[in-house]
Specification:
32% helix; nine-stranded mixed β-sheet; 11 strands; Spore Coat Polysaccharide Biosynthesis Protein SpsA, Chain A; single chain
Length: 255
């Protein structure tokens, strides 16, 4: 890690082609522009990123990004997570980078300020992994297992992540839970010190990760701390074709 000078930050957008719920998702068009290029252009607006690349396992995505003036690298089809893809992209990218930001490839409207918030966590030299959380105030959102919940300690470190309602508020009606404790939704953008990223991909899956299907639990289970910062904005990820139609509708209504 550099000291006394600005840390160099690489933004990586993992773009796996064969999504089980939405094959070919990175090349899906949203009002005349592909999803992956919308993410790329939003990330480029973050001035704290020194370089932005797409890490894909598909030649069509690779060719498309280059044709549109972007930078892409080919990565293995065998990666099980965006973290693994980011690690290979770092290895294949020219230049030395202190921090790698894992930017979700299916969030075409990501706010560059959210990326900057994660980067800001690394101004503290002891931060090895960083991510975003957003306060939950709606009971339906809280109970939805697709919304990953984060429990955050007083120092800002994540204590645990779960698909379940956590923490559980005992002896209180559900409507009053929010008066007792702050609930947080995890927003899945990660930052890693480059050396830490190389270490994380060498770890074996743990019991907690297998149970919840959340890769960040592997890191916690192995003693890594994950620093969080709160954001006011939600993530608008596109997982299905129906999500895409909603995104197009939102974009049209905002224009």
């Amino acid at each position: 890690m550099q000291t006394g000078s600005k840390k160099k930050v690489l933004g990586v957008i993992p773009a796996r082609y064969q999504s089980s719920r939405f094959p070919g998702k990175p090349l899906a068009m949203i009002e005349g522009q592909s999803m992956i290029m919308r993410v790329y252009e939003q990330a480029k607006k973050c001035g704290a990123l020194h370089k932005v690349i797409v890490a894909t396992d598909n030649k069509a995505v690779f060719g498309h990004v280059h044709a549109m003036g972007g930078i892409a690298v080919m990565t293995s089809e065998n990666h099980e997570s965006g973290t693994e893809r980011c690690a290979e992209a770092l290895q294949k990218t020219e230049g030395a980078f202190d921090i790698v930001i894992n930017i979700q490839g299916d969030e075409p409207f990501i706010n560059p300020a959210q990326i900057e918030k994660v980067i800001g966590l690394f101004s503290a030299p002891d931060v090895k992994i960083g991510t975003l959380v957003k306060r939950i105030s709606d009971l339906k959102q809280l109970k939805n297992p697709n919304n990953v919940k984060a429990v955050v300690g007083t120092t800002g470190d994540a204590l645990y992540f779960s698909r379940s309602v956590i923490p559980f508020v005992r002896d209180k009606e559900e409507e009053k839970w929010f008066d007792e404790v702050a609930f947080f939704k995890h927003i899945g953008i990660y930052g890693y010190q480059s050396q830490t990223l190389k270490e994380l991909v060498k770890l074996e899956k743990g019991v907690l990760e297998k149970a919840e299907s959340l890769e960040q639990l592997r890191w916690i289970e192995n003693g890594y701390k994950i620093k969080t910062v709160e954001t006011e904005e939600d993530a608008a990820g596109i997982d299905t074709y129906e999500d895409l139609l909603e995104a197009v509708k939102r974009l049209k209504s905002s224009n």
